[in-house]
Input
Amino acid sequence: MTHRERMALTLNHKQPDRTALDLGATTQTGMNASTLYKLRAALGLEQHPIKIIEPYQMLGEIEPDLAELLEVDGSGIYNYYNMLGYANDDWKPWQMPDGTPVLMGGSFEYETEEGSGNILVFPGRDRHQQPSCVMPAGGSFFDNIERCKSYDEELLDGRKDFKDDFTVADDITAKRWEQDSRFLYENTEFSLVGILGGGSFGDVSIIPGPSVKDPKGVRTVEGWLMAHALYPDYIREIFSYQKEVMLKNLEIYKQAVGDRIQTIWVSGTDLGTQNGTFIAPSQFRELYKPFFKEVNDWIHHNTSWKIFYHTCGCITPLLDDLAEIGVDCLNPVQISAMENMGMTAKKLKAEYGDKFVFWGGGVDTQRVLPFGTPDEVREQTKERVEIFSKGGGFVFSTIHNVVSNVPVENVIAMYETVLGKSLR
Output
């Protein structure tokens, strides 16, 4: 069975020959370059700088040799312009604070802050602007810097304030979508995931505007959450504009990639915290749900693509809503958070296994994978695969990306358990 055939069965809730496996097909199922470099060394693969395909989280490219060894089933169509606002091309060498050699896009520019050692990047590579993201000294990924200016709440205008955050794809981007999807479709057997972006309504990682030179309006996470109560019409204005751009980009995307992709990554909005939802479920239903549904309806009416949503945290109160708006694939399946409201892995599979493909949930990346023993990793991985894989509808992946400082022995133990074979 080919990767594409295996994923087709999985996405349609049918039992494949083995559990489908993803590493790196999306921006939430990848691996930090630091850990990836160590994993390649431990597995005896060629050592060379890791290409950074998503710099905000410093995610490394999963190359063919590793993908083959781990029997990875999917690959992502990444965007030409990344979250920091520069193009993924013309690669040049760089070194992470821990010494990991990497390749960054040629337009990557940074400044090391005197005294602190923090690494700063600027929106649009414009050093005349305030820095928009920071990698703390000794860190391994970037955080947003909130650059919210004072504003007159009477003059808030969602369309004007966020006009630079959401834009219609240019010809260069569309051409890259077409070229990359065609190359992977014709030269590999991977199931392809289109990482379009732009449909993450209210995503707190994009509210600060990491790639926007002069962000206007409400731009702090605290201010954004308060705006749900204070300025609901402002949020609707932003979402209405964002939706219009998203629908235009979907038209362009469909023309570029056609049926070469099986799944489309639509949203990365985290709706949950460790113990509950970010906002009241009633606010989600009033402000978010109509916009998500309109985008999803377009996809289902005009394509054969399955819709992938990433949403961290305890989203138990919103599971029915997500099913109603047409979410097909749910990620990262953060059981450790959902358990705080009584939703165990077994209960989730029993009650929602016919509604969602669970893309994730394979092992806890907050405690077990980074701090457990290899045996503890094997035990949880085995348990999760047994629960979620019954009847299909499960793509094995960790709960969000594998970050830095995770013991490589634990990573290997995880994959050996899923694959049922030794990797060394």
In short: The two ends are 24 Å apart (CA to CA).
